[in-house]
C-alpha cells in the first residue's frame, strides 16, 4: 500500500529546527525506508493516553505518528527523554 506523508505544523516549526543535521538525515532515511512502506510493522503501538498513535525509534529520537487510511500523520519528533510528555500536553 502506498502512503501519503503529512507533517503536523508544530513538527516543522518547533521540532525539526532543534535537531542536528546529522540526526535529521537519519530520521529522513528511516521515514523513507520503513515508515512509508510498512508503518504497522515498524511503528510500536502506544498505550494509555496515547492509544491510537505509534512510535518509531531512531537512536535516541522518537517519531510519534498516526495512521489514517492511506495517510501517515507525523505529530511529534523528539528526544526519547521528553517526547511523550511534551506530546501529551500539546494534543
Report on this structure.
The chain has 91 residues and is of the alpha+beta class. It has one domain: RelE-like (YaeB-like fold), CATH 3.30.2310. It is built from four helices and five strands; from the N terminus they run E-H-H-H-E-E-E-E-H. The protein has helices at 9-15, 21-35, 39-42, 83-90, and strands at 4-7, 44-45, 54-58, 61-68, 71-79. Strands 1-5-4-3-2 form a five-stranded mixed β-sheet. The longest helix is centred in the N-terminal third of the chain and has 15 residues, at 21-35. The protein is globular and about 30 Å long. The protein starts with a strand and ends with a helix.
Terminal-residue CA separation: 28 Å
Mean pLDDT: 91
Report the β-strand fraction as a percent range.
25-35%
What is the CATH topology classification name?
YaeB-like fold
Helix content: 25-40%
- Low-pLDDT stretches are none
CATH architecture: 2-Layer Sandwich
Main pleated sheet? 5 strands, mixed
Determine and state the CATH class.
Alpha Beta
- The CATH superfamily name is RelE-like
Class by SSE composition: alpha+beta
Q: Count helical runs.
A: 4
Give the topology string: H per helix, E per strand: EHHHEEEEH
Q: Measured on Cα atoms, how large is the radius of gyration? A: 12 Å
Q: Total domains, how many? A: 1
Spatial order of the strands forming the largest sheet: 1-5-4-3-2
Label the overall shape.
Answer: globular
Please report the total strand number as a whole number. Answer: 5
SSE topology:
Blueprint: E1 4-7, H1 9-15, H2 21-35, H3 39-42, E2 44-45, E3 54-58, E4 61-68, E5 71-79, H4 83-90
Parallel strand pairs: 1-5
Antiparallel strand pairs: 2-3, 3-4, 4-5
Amino acid at each position: 500500500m502506498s502512503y501519503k506523508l503529512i507533517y503536523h505544523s508544530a513538527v516543522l516549526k518547533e521540532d525539526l529546527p532543534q535537531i542536528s543535521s546529522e540526526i535529521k538525515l537519519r530520521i529522513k532515511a528511516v521515514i523513507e525506508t520503513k515508515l512509508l512502506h510498512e508503518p504497522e510493522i515498524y511503528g510500536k503501538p502506544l498505550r494509555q493516553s496515547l492509544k491510537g498513535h505509534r512510535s518509531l525509534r531512531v537512536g535516541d529520537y522518537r517519531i510519534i505518528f498516526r495512521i489514517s487510511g492511506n495517510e501517515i500523520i507525523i505529530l511529534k519528533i523528539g528526544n526519547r527523554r521528553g517526547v511523550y510528555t511534551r506530546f501529551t500536553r500539546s494534543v
